[in-house]
Amino acid sequence: MAAVDDLQFEEFGDRATRATSLAASPDAATVSIEDPSDASKHQPGPPGRLGREEDDELLGNDDSDKAELLASQKKSSPFWTFEYYQTFFDVDTYQVFDRIKGSLLPIPGKNFVRLYIRSNPDLYGPFWICATLVFAIAISGNLSNFLIHLGEKTYHYVPEFQKVSVAATVIYAYAWLVPLALWGFLMWRNSKVMNIVSYSFLEIVCVYGYSLFIYIPTAVLWIIPQRTVRWILVMIALGISGSVLAMTFWPAVREDNRRVALATLVTILLLHVLLSVGCLAYFFDAPEIDHLPTTTATPNQTVAVAKSS
Amino acid sequence: MAEAEESPGDRETASPRPLFAGLSDISISEDTPVEGEITIPMRSRAREFDSSTLNESVRNTIMRDLKAVGKKFMHVLYPRKSNALLRDWDLWGPLILCVSLALMLQKSSVDGEPGGGPQFAEVFVIIWFGAVTITINSKLLGGNISFFQSLCVLGYCILPLTAAMLICRLVLLAGPGPINFMIRLFVVVVMFAWSVIASTAFLADSQPPNRKALAVYPVFLFYFVISWLILTFTP
User: Fold this and answer.
1) Nearest one of A251, A254, A246 to A271, comparing CA atoms
2) Contact A230, A280 (CB under 8 A)
3) B positions 86-145 inside 8 Å of A (CB)
4) ipTM for the assembly
5) Using 50, 70 and 90 to split pLDDT, how confident is the model at B97?
6) A89, A132, A160: which to substitute to probe chain B, counting the most B Cβ within 10 Å?
7) Whole-model pTM?
8) Which of A140, A290, A289, A230 minimizes the C-alpha distance to B232?
9) Distance of CA B111 to CAs A142, A204, B115, B120, B219, Å?
């Protein structure tokens, strides 16, 4: 039996001697998994990254190295095995709730990806939030139309089930194709301009998926057949989810040409606006239209009908 | 036939092994062959099945499967934590329930007006693809339930909703009206709760404890959509 002393780990000296020995090759990028408080002192870092101290909190430079190391350790199964896809569902209940909460309360200056996702993007949230949203919009639209036309004699209620497939196509296309396009665009810009922050495709899908959560209660509240209430709800939902998206993607395009950066953000927000307004217009009948002339229509309402048509 | 070679081994291993102290006392001479018979207690019924199911009458075969399906229906109606649904899974029950629900959701619409109720294929697709998606989701989250067991449980727990559909169709024969709607709403809500409780009673144990809610929510959504289809049915 080997003596106990032989099993002792060899010490290679403390950090100071290690750093000096490694300092002989200053170009080498050293990555050490240590406390985040120490890491900023020790890492020489690759030459491209100049120290932007004010961004550390936002970007989490020291976190990102460790996170990338962990991420590369995580996804080691080949893509045709089941375990590969299990790594995308490696979240607990409280983590999903935290991410949803983070998407509902955008704090200026805090990046959603760095704060909540931390290189553990999951597909559970985006997929099931989109599924819930599809059915929420279809069911709320149906219910709202039923309530609007409740008193009319000639109205025959139909469940309008075909609208579910339309909703599913639109929402899943938005939640998956727009991140794909955005990711491709960011990769292309990254090759031209060295960006500090770059997101993986799954992280972008995650942000988009969780930012759609606010629309679920909004869709339920859209049942209220008042025009002003609906538009106020649209403004609130757009404000919250738009700010989450803007604050996430601003650090990624900030390094770029000013106009390109602004154009990117404007496009992201414009697509978001298009989604919400389009859903409101297609699934929810306007409250004053389709009323038969036998109902008492005040001049104000007829003017509104004329304006909206 | 192996000969027992325990005597040379005994001498080597006797001393530092207090665990096998008794063995050193046993010795079998080399002339004695060691032989025997190993019998594993199996269910002897299985052997009878293998040989005789070919010869039994068709009625026996069908009745056996129907009895298994009926037994599982009872398990769903009175959900206890039992393993019977999981152990011998079968997909006959879900198929019968799915087809009957899809048939009852058909309306006799002569004119194909757009925006009507779901077609037969749509109901079928929702139920089966919904169940497959939930199963894949629970497996991805780390649950240790097999694919077909989960499909079996989800399919069988549609039974309360099928009963609700039957009741709704009977109630609708009395003519539309708000009281009619209240009765239907009450029945569908009760049956929806029953379905969700029954399926979580069977499925919740197979999930890791910190992800139970994540695995149960899609089940809730699935039965909610089916309940909505049942509630909004208008002949």
Assistant:
1) A246
2) yes
3) 113-118, 122, 137, 139-142
4) 0.72
5) very high
6) A89
7) 0.72
8) A140
9) 21, 46, 12, 16, 35
